[in-house]
Every structure is written in structure tokens, then in C-alpha cells.
């Protein structure tokens, strides 16, 4: 009886693994996250027929993950979600991404190729869609437009996001307006881009990687700064940017990939109370 039960138990476990993955479908429907989080060894249990494996934190909490989540939905690419939990990250995930960060994507049908870092993931996904002869406008073919996108994205990562989190985390009242002004100065680049492009998006008529790269941070800004700093983007200084935010928030990809306002405040409450560094973005001394 013992020998008979062992293969049956293995079969049961295999079926549980196989049914844990739920593929997202085109049209902006959010995938159900796998229940096999934390210690689950996805390097062994992955279904080789999975088109794209998408590794995330639970609960749509990470803005970097949200960038790639938006990209996948906008492109309509089929994908499966695996949540990665625990600090430090489990060994099985470090085999996939040695840096231990999310997001990461893996393509089983391409000899399990692994791509990580949100900006690189997003450009890859656009190229992957084009390679599959799928029309996409997130990353245009024009080299000047591509360079423009990368410059805007570099500004987000290396200038704007630092000012945003420094303002949010500042507890020195004497520095309040200094921090606010630095953030607004960084935001001026996006207002100017929208004026130049004539909108509704940063590069014009099409929603691109430049928009989705910035959007998770602006989305969090509008919630967290209003809650902790009683700050809202002033329409007299940023009329185009305010319109852009409202337009982007109506997209299905944003609705499917976002935390609720209540969840955002809950998550960021822990950061504010702990004087979290946000990976060095918080420049308060």
C-alpha cells in the first residue's frame, strides 16, 4: 500500500502545481496570482508551455512590477504570474534573478531566457511582440522617439523619483517647501513634454513606455502626498500633467494593475513610520 500511495501523492502534487498557474487573457483582465508563493521552486515546477512567466511581489504593491504588468496587458501578451515572497528572497528565485529583485520575466519556449529590471523587461516585451509580427505602439521604431522615451525614463529614475520620496519622507517642517519645490522642478519636464507633444500622452497620440514608466510613481504621488502632506498637483502649474494623470488612470491596464487608495495608504504607512530609504531614493539626512 505504501508503494502505491507514493506515486498517487506525486501525481496529486503535480496536478496542484499545474493548475496553480492562471494565464492572463487579452483585453486587460488581471491574472489570478499563483498560490505557490515563497518557497515554491518554480525552476522545477514551471509548465514548459507557459508563454511568459512573470515574477512579482504579492498585492500589486511594487511600482516597478506595475510598469511591466501594464506593458503585458497593453500588449495583450499571454502570461502567468508567480508571486515571490520572503526576505531574503528564496534560493529558487535567486537562480532566476541573482539580484533577487522583481519584476523578472522568463520565456520557457526560448530555452528559459530570463530578463529583469523593469525598463529592460518592457522594451524586451515590445520587441518580442514585434518579433511575433504583432502591431504595437508602446515602443516606436523611430530611433529619435526611442531615444526620447529613454531620456524621459532616465529622468524619472534618476531625478523625479528621488525628489518625490524625499518630499514624502521629509519630517523637517523647515524643509517642506524646499522639498516640494525640488519635486515640482523635476515634474516640469513632463509638463513641457505634454505641451510639446500636444498630448494626450507624453509623446503625442500614442500611450508609450514613457507614460507607463512614470505612471506608477505619479499614481502613488497623488495618493500619498495628499494623505501625508496635504499636497495636490497644482493645476495652474501643471494643467497638462493633471489631465494626463486623469486620462491614464482610465486605462484598463491601470485599473487591473493598481492598488486601491486604501491599500496604498496602508502599505506606505509602514514606509513612513520606518523612515524607509526606498533603495536610496529618500535623500533626507
Notes on the protein architecture:
The protein is mainly alpha-helical. The protein is built from 11 helices and 4 strands. It has helices spanning 2-20, 42-45, 63-75, 91-96, 118-131, 143-169, 176-197, 209-229, 239-249, 252-257, 261-273, and strands spanning 53-56, 80-83, 104-107, 113-116. A 4-stranded mixed beta sheet has the order 2-1-3-4, with helices on one face. α3 (63-75) links the parallel β1 (53-56) and β2 (80-83). It starts with a helix and ends in a 12-residue tail after the last helix. The model is unreliable at 1-39 (pLDDT under 50).
Topology record:
Layout: H1 2-20, H2 42-45, E1 53-56, H3 63-75, E2 80-83, H4 91-96, E3 104-107, E4 113-116, H5 118-131, H6 143-169, H7 176-197, H8 209-229, H9 239-249, H10 252-257, H11 261-273
Parallel strand pairs: 1-2
Antiparallel strand pairs: 1-3, 3-4
Short note summarizing the structure:
The chain has 285 residues and is mostly helical.
Strand composition percent: 5-15%
Would you identify the regions where 5 or more consecutive residues have pLDDT less than 50? 1-39
SSE topology string: HHEHEHEEHHHHHHH
How far apart the termini lie comes to 66 Å
- Report helical residue fraction: 40-55%
Number of helix segments?
Answer: 11
Mean pLDDT, all residues: 83
> What structural class is derived from the secondary structure elements?
mainly alpha
Number of strands: 4
Largest sheet: 4 strands, mixed
Q: Which strands sit side by side, in order, in the main sheet? A: 2-1-3-4
Overall body shape: globular
The rounded Rg comes to: 21 Å
